[in-house]
Amino acid sequence: MAPVCLDPVGRAAMPAPPTAPRRPEGDFAAALRAEFERQAGVKLSAHAEERLRSRGIALSAQQAESLRGAVERAAAKGASRSLVVMDGLALIVSVPNRVVITAVDEAGARDGVFTNIDSAVIAR
Questions:
Q1: Which DSSP category does 11 fall into?
Q2: 70 and 83 in contact (C-beta within 8 Å)?
Q3: Which of 63, 62, 53, 6 is nearest to 28 (CA)?
Q4: How far is the first Cα of the chain from the last one, in angstroms, to the nearest whole number?
């Protein structure tokens, strides 16, 4: 049964208009994120995703595989927060959570100093 709107007196008026359907997670950004996470085994935080999008950077399948390998190597050494450098990008990764926290390209790395990390990995 459809919801019913009540008029100010409390009497049933006309049926409530249907609500707009929610957009499924099928939009392009969600599909891109899901494919990246599937390939890399590493998730992108909303902040990292926005950084990449605003700079027009899309990670390829090969880069996703390189990132996955870099995170695995960092995890094997007991790293917690790692700087992963690859193809002109610097990615800060929460290694235990397998989440890219932020991403910076060469143009965005103003002073080239990264803090609050315990390791650095050059992705191959």
A1: -
A2: no
A3: 53
A4: 59
Global pTM reads 0.68
Strand order in the sheet with 119-122: 43-44, 99-105, 89-94, 81-86, 119-122
For residue range 87-106, what is the model confidence (pLDDT) as tens digits?
989 999 999 999 999 999 88
Residue closest to 53 by CA, chosen among 75, 74, 27: 27
Residue 43 bridge partners (DSSP): 99
Sign of the CA dihedral 71, 94, 101, 23? positive
Counting Cα atoms < 13 Å in the Cβ hemisphere of 89 gives 24
Which neighbouring-strand residues pair with 99? 43, 94
Give the residue with greater pLDDT, 32 vs 109.
109
Alpha-carbon distance of 62 to 48, in angstroms, equals: 19
